[in-house]
Amino acid sequence: MAMTGTARRMRRQGTVPPVPALLPRIGIAVLALLVVAWSAVLWRDDRIGSEASNRLLMSKQLSDAEWAREVERLRDAELLDPSTRWPLARAQAYLLRDRPRDAARVTESVLDREPENVEAWIVLREATREIDPRRAAQAGAEIRRLSPPPAER
Questions:
Q1: Where are the beta strands (DSSP E) in 34-126?
Q2: Which of 100, 102, 115, 134 is the most exposed place for a label (fewest CB within 10 A)?
Q3: Using one digit for the tens of pLDDT, what is the confidence trace for 34-91?
Q4: Max Cα distance, the chain (Å)
């Protein structure tokens, strides 16, 4: 592509950087846009997850349909969120609805990703207390390992 006289003159005068010099700037701009977009998604996740979690954990009078809708909203809150906050909130909601097997299943998936997550071990201990006492004892041992009691003086 041939440059016009004006473009050649601007390039000689140094007012228009050559295209290769613009590539890093373009890359940084694209990266900044991606970070802003991801931040917006995480903000959306937090808003949806917080509202759903509050309704599930604080409202005892939810119908089965309302409860299922809020659990689905917790799943929606996991979009691009690497944390385990929403799966653990879902597991706690299952515990409140007397669904310990579902709570244990969700919590085990969290522990597969984060075996040092003491909150997940606590939820697992509560979920398996009646249905799998051996696993509950293992969870208790992990809790003590990860969060030992203070040493006596």
A1: none
A2: 134
A3: 999 989 888 988 899 989 999 998 887 899 999 999 999 999 888 878 899 999 999 9
A4: 85
Give the tens place of pLDDT for each residue, 135-153: 999 999 999 999 988 877 7
Residue matched to tokens 């903000």: 43
Q: How many residues does the chain have?
A: 153
**CA 132 from chain center: how many Å?**
28
In whole angstroms, give the CA distance from residue 138 to residue 128. Answer: 10
Nearest CA-CA partner of 74 in 61, 113, 114, 96: 96
Within 10 Å of residue 7's Cβ, how many Cβ atoms? 11
What one-character-per-residue DSSP string does 13-35 give? HTSS--HHHHHHHHHHHHHHHHH
Q: Which two tokens stand for residue 114?
A: 């984060």
Q: How many degrees, rounded to 5, is the angle at CA 108 between CA 107 and CA 110?
A: 65
